[in-house]
Specification:
single chain, 1064 residues, alpha+beta, 11-stranded mixed beta sheet, 33 helices
């Protein structure tokens, strides 16, 4: 008999990955000796713990639970008295003892109590009940006979439910994107409701809502009683913390009459949350748990003053979510179901208030209420096969009846609650509920599309596609223009219609940071469609004998989105699928081999011979490096320096290139110039006309006249370029920029596969006013270009590993290795980087509870003498980039500590520790406290720039533009372009003040008193190199203090600064 267990425990572990590896390895040895399969996450955190799902023989699973409970004997010992010294029992005791010894040693090392679980913290299931559910996947489909042999081939995988054992270290047990990392173990251990208490709460809530509905009906009948029409005494909200796909097939329902209403409200709308609190549980409609905190922030008003009840599958998500809601909202009371849905169904089965199936993360996919109750002891009716079979047949009848199916087909709304591996969204790959009738072929989809057209009032002649691809509710509006398998399309007109549809969608989300990822997705799809269109047009239209209406009849068989094979039975779906895992591993090996081969080719053959195979970014980087070298701009900071430390290079003539974007394809050059380039907008028509008349706009290095611009249409692969008389704004730099080389620990290099000669990072002390890399009007006046020249590094080979504002000074990390950059990027995305800044602000910063009483916006913490600010940051205008504090923003937290006050100018030096990493976070939070950073005019800081300074900048740039240095004719330029570009140059004709902003001309906002002092980086374990050693202690990188901090101060010793690290 095979069993399945779910378990978790929030318990403090070590933040040191190398130490926590000891406990992970002990768990892995235990599971392998017991022949268990499944998934366990071990968090390297003091606020997380352990989370796992395992499957195997019942006796072995029982021994594993005994190991975590620190029990010498099994819970249920039904064996007859026998010899305690036989080999099997000695082996079992030795397995347990070995794990206990390792576990005690680990927790003694980190100074924490041993992690133990109670018997009720395990959720048991019988594997037999799971396979019963799995065998009914087709729901009576006519393909049962065809699927039966394939299912028999996968019997072993279904029996074990998992393909292998995977125990790994992580930062969070449930990925919240770092938004819940500050929730402590004590904060999660609150608000429990036992299954019985939960059931009683829902019964009372159901009764209250029925009474409320009755009162409303009476009020509607009573024409004289209008005062209480809006009264609502329902103060309880029920929230499902799971993802929307889990909610679709099962959820708690207070009244059977509300089932249809509740589900339709969640399946027909992909953007609006189901907030009908009188129906059933609210579905936040998340596809990942990291979206739940955002939902909470956007629905604070809904939760204010309410009693909140929350639930999830096994309890781990709602336990953390309830703590988050309790901490970030004004809800009166927040409680959650202890043990989750699983424990509730163990006690109530189908007799409770649960409707539908419980989504599970193994090969069963879902478990009905009766299956969960039957398997609660891990055996399924005590292991009696006849009883198991009889009860399973009975439970099958219950769970397959339409009254117990809450899921609905996306197309026909028929009852359906089984996800199929081939029915996934073409955009996001989320599983979609499609009944067997609607996934039977193209006719059904064509009928549905025609039906939708008639409902929407569209022309009946609107073309419909015969491609069998599906779209989830969130992406249902893309069902006519977004398809994953474009090789099935053979009609250019159909592809053009898709391109038009995608471009129309892009126009609607053209502005806004929150649409950034959607724009990337649609832009990549536009490029794929354009590439397919070019492929067909190069073959003279319709290709491969395809019909002009779409795809060939032989192409009706879809490839599996998971493994890419046509003959896939669906068993590859999910992380338990062996076939998909093998395919991904082979693909990864091929990619690694290709990368090594490409790198070797580049080194041995040079850029010229490897151009054909190099990626676009590498090609552009190489072209840019050649241009910088040809212009003579590959110079250290000491070059081009003038009076006052101004670094201002001479003017040059260069061609600025733009590769044709997907949305440009099919548009005229004139239209693209007017809509995509601000300097050529409708208000600057004279400038555009002058540039075209002088032949300074080129397509593929050929000049475009005014007449050509009105007729020539861009296509994929075209290069649009403009010849410019290039003026570069000045920056302020020292003679030499502080740079040191830090070597990464050997364990980090091994884990990420970084060669030893590449495992280094450059630690730079960036001056303010200097951008990190070439962008906008900056080319040679950028940190990467100056450091490359100063340290004799090949041009355009340095890669910044993090982002730093131009106005900010201090620590900036760079590397020439893309592998090193990826390692840092992963640490940043997993919130494994601690940052320490110093800032100089206006006024005397609070240093006591008394002085803090006069300041609003932060919380004084007496133990660390710090101020914590917890205020969400929002970007109302993405174009300007200015941030504000708003409930619509993302959660943001910072800690500040006064280091010294300067009475002479009434300023303070403050240590700053950003817990989260939002753009401009420290600047906005300090402004909210009433202490803006000096020089930060964008957020209220004062700046002192004299008229002499302004005049010096203007005169310096003017002298550089009049330089008599002979210019080189670069590739893409013609002899007459240099004179023509100077003739129409805006800076030369109207002055540099007409071309650049005040900040670019160093007249305010270009330099602020905010300095990055130190980073502590803890590198996560790399999945691709599990066999390598786990990284050692976190690495630390730091630079010198800024000039506006007196070196004679005590803070220069760093003692006061490091105290702020303990405030997290």
């Amino acid at each position: 008999q095979h069993s399945v267990i779910l378990f978790y425990k929030y318990h403090p572990l070590s933040r040191d990955w190398s130490v926590t590896e000891l406990y992970r390895a002990a768990l892995e040895r235990l599971c392998r000796r017991l022949s268990l399969r499944g998934r366990i996450l071990v968090a390297c955190s003091e606020t997380e713990g352990l989370n796992g799902t395992l499957a195997g023989r019942y006796d072995n699973v029982r021994l594993f639970t005994n190991a975590l409970m620190m029990m010498e004997t099994p819970l249920d010992d039904d064996d007859d008295d026998g010899d305690d010294d036989d080999d099997e029992q000695r082996q079992q005791r030795q397995v347990l003892q070995d794990f206990w010894d390792s576990s005690r040693a680990f927790f003694a090392q980190i100074g924490q109590p041993v992690l133990t679980l109670e018997p009720q913290e395990f959720k048991w299931s019988s594997s037999s009940s799971g396979t019963t559910s799995n065998s009914t996947r087709s729901n009576g489909d006519e393909n049962d006979e065809q699927q039966q042999p394939q299912q028999q081939q996968q019997s072993e995988q279904q029996q074990y439910l998992f393909p292998d054992l995977n125990i790994k270290l992580t930062t969070e047990l449930i990925g919240s994107g770092g938004k819940m990392l500050d929730i402590t173990v004590d904060e999660t251990a609150q608000g429990y409701l036992t299954p019985r208490q939960w059931h009683e709460q829902l019964q009372r809530l159901s009764q209250q809502r029925r009474q409320q509905q009755q009162r409303r009906r009476q009020q509607e009948d009573d024409e004289n009683d209008d005062e209480n029409d809006d009264k609502n005494d329902d103060d309880t909200i029920l929230i499902d913390c799971r993802n929307t796909k889990e909610y679709q097939i099962g959820h708690f329902c207070l009244d059977d009459d509300n089932n249809d209403t509740t589900h339709s409200s969640t399946t027909t709308s992909s953007t609006n949350t189901n907030t009908n609190t009188n129906a059933a549980a609210i579905d936040p409609q998340t596809t990942a748990y990291s979206q739940f905190p955002t939902w909470v922030q956007h629905n604070k008003v809904l939760l204010e003053g309410k009693k909140v009840l929350m639930y999830c599958t096994g309890g781990i998500r709602c336990e953390k979510a309830s703590a988050y809601v309790r901490k970030h909202t004004n809800a009166t009371q927040v409680q959650h179901l202890q043990g989750g849905i699983h424990k509730y169904l163990e006690e109530y089965g189908s007799d409770g208030l649960w409707r539908g199936k419980n989504f599970v993360f193994d090969a069963r996919q879902a478990s009905s209420a009766e299956e969960t109750r039957l398997g609660k002891d891990g055996l399924g009716s005590n292991g009696d096969d006849d009883v198991v079979r009889k009860n399973n047949d009975s439970s099958k009848d219950k769970c397959n009846s339409s009254s117990n199916i809450v899921g609905k087909c996306l197309y026909c709304q028929a009852p359906h609650d089984t996800f199929d591996a081939k029915c996934v969204c073409a955009v996001c790959r989320e599983p979609v509920l499609i009944c067997p009738q609607c996934r039977g072929g193209p006719k059904q989809l064509q009928q549905q599309n025609a039906k939708d057209d008639n409902k929407n009032g569209n022309d009946e002649s609107t073309p419909t596609t015969s491609i069998v691809e599906y779209h989830c509710p969130q992406h249902f509006h893309l069902r006519r223009c977004y398809f994953a398998q474009l090789e099935r399309f053979h009609d250019p007109q159909t592809l053009k219609e898709q391109l038009v549809g995608l471009q129309a969608e892009l126009q609607q989300i053209a502005v806004g940071r929150r649409f950034k990822q959607k724009r990337k997705t649609l832009t990549r799809q536009c490029a794929k469609v354009a590439a397919r269109l070019n492929e067909l047009e190069s073959h003279g239209g319709t290709k491969d004998g395809g019909s002009s209406t779409g795809a060939k009849e032989s192409d009706c068989h879809m490839k599996c989105r998971s493994c890419g094979q046509v003959d896939c039975t669906g068993n590859c779906w999910g992380f338990y699928g062996l076939k998909r895992k093998d395919i991904l591993e082979n693909h990864s090996k091929q990619q690694d081999h290709f990368s090594v081969r490409s790198t070797t080719s580049t080194i041995t053959s040079g850029l010229t011979t490897s151009n054909n195979n190099a990626p676009k970014k590498k090609l552009r980087r190489g072209v840019a490096a050649d241009e910088i070298s040809a212009l003579g701009f590959h110079q250290p900071p000491s070059a081009f320096r003038h009076e006052g430390g101004l670094r201002c290079p001479p003017c040059v003539t260069r061609a600025v290139q733009s590769f044709a974007k997907a949305k440009w394809c099919g548009e005229t050059v004139l239209h693209v110039l007017q809509t995509e380039f601000a300097e050529f907008s409708a208000s600057s028509s004279q400038m555009l006309k002058s540039v075209l008349e002088h032949g300074l706009i080129k397509v593929n290095d050929k000049s475009v006249s005014m007449m050509d611009a009105c007729h020539v249409k861009l296509k994929s692969g075209d290069v649009l370029s403009r010849v410019l008389h290039w003026h570069e704004p000045p920056v302020q730099t020292p003679e030499r920029i502080e740079v040191s080389v830090a070597k990464l620990p050997d364990t980090v290099a091994e884990s990420y596969g970084i060669p030893q000669h590449e495992a280094t990072v450059l630690v730079c002390n960036k001056p303010s006013s200097v951008p990190v890399h070439p962008a906008g009007p900056f080319l040679t006046n950028s940190l990467t270009v100056m450091i490359e020249a100063q340290e004799a590094i090949p041009g355009r080979s340095l890669k910044p590993v993090h982002r730093t504002d131009r106005a900010t000074s201090g620590l900036t990390l760079m590397s020439t290795s893309s592998l090193v950059a990826k390692a840092f990027h992963r640490a940043l995305t997993e919130s494994a980087v601690e940052k320490l800044y110093v800032a100089k602000v206006q006024g005397r910063f609070p240093d006591s509870a008394e002085s803090m009483s006069q300041v609003s916006g932060g919380v004084w913490r007496e133990d660390s003498q710090t101020i914590k600010v917890d205020a969400p940051i929002h970007t109302p205008d993405p174009i300007s980039g200015v941030r504000i504090i708003s409930d619509q923003g993302k959660p943001s937290q910072s800690v500040f500590k006064l280091l010294r006050h300067y009475p002479d100018d009434d300023s303070s030096v403050v240590a700053c520790y950003p817990i989260t990493g939002r753009n401009h976070q420290l600047r906005v939070h300090l402004q909210s406290l009433g202490f803006p950073i000096l020089g930060d005019v964008q957020y209220g800081g004062r700046v002192e720039t004299t008229s002499a300074d302004r005049q010096l900048v203007v005169e310096t740039m003017k002298s550089c533009s009049l330089s008599s240095r002979p210019e080189k004719i670069l590739p893409g330029l013609e002899p007459g372009d240099i004179a023509a570009a100077a003739k129409v140059c805006k800076s030369c004709c109207q002055g540099v003040q007409a071309s650049f902003s005040e900040a670019q001309l160093l007249q305010g906002g270009h330099a602020i008193c905010l300095h990055a002092l130190c980073y502590r980086v803890q590198f996560p374990v790399n999945k691709k190199h599990k066999e390598a050693a786990v990284p050692a202690l976190s690495s630390e990188f730091k630079v010198s203090l800024p000039p506006w901090v007196e070196n004679s101060d005590a803070i220069a010793q760093g003692d006061a600064l490091w105290k702020v690290w303990s405030t997290k």
